[in-house]
Amino acid sequence: MTKVKLRKKSMTDNRHSLYLDYYPPIPNEETGKPTRREFLKLFIYDKPKNPFEKEHNKNTMALAEAIKGQRQSSIQNQNYGFISNPSEKGDFVEYFRQLAAKRKGPNSDNWQSSLKYLVAFTGGKLPFKDLTLKMCDDFREYLQSSPTNRSSKKTLAQNSAHSYFNKFKAALKQAYKEGHLKTDLNGRVDGIKQAETNRQFLTLEELNKLANTDCELPQLKQAALFSALTGLRYSDIEKLLWSEIQYSQESGFSIRFRQKKTKGMEVLPISEQAVSLLGERGEPEKRIFSGLVYSAWTNLKLREWILDSGIKKKGITFHSFRHTYATLQLELGTDIYTLSKMLGHRDLKTTQIYAKIVDKTKQQAANRIKIDFI
């Protein structure tokens, strides 16, 4: 019977590629010719110089050994389809790269970061036919123990790992839908639990300070305040059309739109003040914030605007204005169920984090009044 051995072949840049050696050769069902070698499109470092390269070698060798075991099992069952499988000929890393390129705004950065870790884990190549549940589990463990891109001494934050692995799972889901994968791996692989974070937000007093402070990018100020008054994410504000701003005498102003994140259709009531921020109404199919661009430059101008207003809080991002909306709504008496609907959350648990924030601010408020006893 054919035996499968894992072998190495020298490459440039202190690396070896990995391939499987079949002896005696096995038949290629597509060409009819005997096949002796199968290159795995994986590589390892010959002399790893740092913890990252050592971890890469460990994970890559584990993956290669797993593939070797799968091949030996298939041969024992006289199944040689793995040599040529038209439905799974593509490469998952390249497929992921194409998906990432289609993303825009803040979400794009997360996809690109996830791609970097996937490339590091796989060596830049991963045929669809080699995607297994174990490989997915190994990538999850890799993200939870991997050093950050900035420092080999610090591991990736749990919420970053959570976000990057979610992008990986989204790609698995899409690949299965399009027929690149025979198994719904996304449905079978466990995600990374999100750690509870301290979501930064502004008080009503701070929001008023910002409203009365000039910003070098007026449309950024306009969009940020609009988010604070509506709770909309950047991704939904950036693509908002004039036709989606609607009015009726019975219910006033509302936005009818499809959430970019959840894909759900939403009807969001908004205030007259929020509408007044938008200025003169444009053509129905024209974007309201057509000049708004997410970039490092935009983030810099956002930080400068906040500093100019006298606000000392650190870590304020555009998404903090959505947090501000949610927190202020609860502080001013809106019930959590209504707020959940206003934010477009599908699960009430997602909204409950804001209730914890409000409880904390109430406790802080209770401790502000102190009497100096004689």
CATH topology of the largest domain: hpI Integrase, Chain A
> What profile does the largest beta sheet have?
3 strands, antiparallel
Name given to the CATH architecture of the largest domain: Orthogonal Bundle
Instruction: Give the strand tally.
Output: 6
* Whole-number mean pLDDT: 86
CATH H-level homologous superfamily name of the largest domain? Intergrase catalytic core
Helix coverage percent: 40-55%
What is the total number of structural domains?
3
Cα shape: elongated
Class by SSE composition = alpha+beta
CATH class of the largest domain: Mainly Alpha
How would you briefly describe this protein structure?
This protein has 14 helices and 6 strands. It is α+β, with helices and mostly antiparallel strands and 374 residues long.
Question: Any key phrases for this structure?
Answer:
three-stranded antiparallel sheet; 3 domains; hpI Integrase, Chain A; elongated; DNA polymerase, domain 1
Structure, described:
The chain has helices spanning 51-76, 92-101, 106-122, 133-145, 158-177, 185-188, 204-211, 218-230, 234-238, 272-276, 296-308, 320-331, 336-343, 348-366, and strands at residues 3-10, 15-27, 34-45, 245-248, 252-258, 265-269. The chain has 374 residues and is of the alpha+beta class. The chain folds into 3 domains: 1-84, no CATH class; 87-195, DNA polymerase, domain 1 (Orthogonal Bundle); 204-366, hpI Integrase, Chain A (Orthogonal Bundle). It has a 3-stranded antiparallel sheet, with helices on one face. The chain has a 3-stranded antiparallel sheet with strand order 4-5-6, with no helix packed on it. Strand 5 (252-258) and strand 6 form a beta hairpin. Helix 4 packs antiparallel against helix 5 and helix 12 packs across helix 14.
